[in-house]
C-alpha cells in the first residue's frame, strides 16, 4: 500500500517529534503493509513553514536513516500546503512541493470554512497543469454542512483525500458520517492516514481499506488504491464510483437526510 499524506519527518511540525519517533512510525507503516509514503509536513499554516528545499533535505536525511536501519519503506517528498493568499508567489519562487514530484499538490483548507477564492485557486493550479488534492475535506465544517462545496471543487478540477481515522470514527460521529457520505457520492478519490504519531494518530490503512470494501464494495477500494499509486507515478487519477443511491438520481438533500437518519 501507498500512503500519500503523512507527518513522518522528525521535529518539523506536529508529527514525529524526533528521529526515533520517525523510525517508530516507519516500522509501524511497514507492519501495516505500507511500502511507500509521501512525507507531507505542514507548510504555511500559520505555525509551520517547511518550504520545498528544506523539506527535500529532511526527506533525504530520513531516507538515509531508513537505509541504515534496514527499514524497507520508500519515502517521497510532499507538503500539506495551507491555502494562503501568497500561494502563487510561493509557487513561482519554488517554495511549494507537489506530491512525489508529480502534477498533484496537497492543499489544506482551514477547519471551519472554505476559503472564498477556493475555486479560483483550483482553476489557477489546473491551468498550470497542477491538480489540487484537497486534504481531508470531511473535516471542514462548511463541507460537512454542505457537501456541494466539495462538489464544486471537484468540478473545478480538484480531488478529495479522506483520512483513515475519519472513516474509522476517530474524529467523532459527525466527521465519520461526513466522510462516508463524501465517499458514497464520488467526491473522494484517495485514502491516506495523515499519520502524526504511532499511538495518537497512526496509520490504520489496511483496516480502513477493509472497511471501505465492506461498506462500499471492492470498486471503491480499488479506485482509492489505484489513485494512490497513480499519484506517485504521476499518472491520471480515475473517477470514483458512486453508490446506487446517487445513481438513482436522489437529490443531495435526500442523501443527507438518509445518512443523518
Ligand atoms: Fe496532514
TrEMBL record:
Pfam family, one: CpsB_CapC
Family label: Belongs to the metallo-dependent hydrolases superfamily. CpsB/CapC family.
Enzyme category, top tier: hydrolase
Keywords for this protein: Hydrolase, Protein phosphatase
Gene3D superfamilies attached to this UniProt entry: Metal-dependent hydrolases
One record GO biological process: capsule polysaccharide biosynthetic process
Protein name: Tyrosine-protein phosphatase
InterPro entries: Caps_polysacc_synth_CpsB/CapC, Metal_Hydrolase
Example GO molecular function: manganese ion binding
Catalysed transformations (reactions): O-phospho-L-tyrosyl-[protein] + H2O = L-tyrosyl-[protein] + phosphate
Enzyme Commission (EC) number: 3.1.3.48
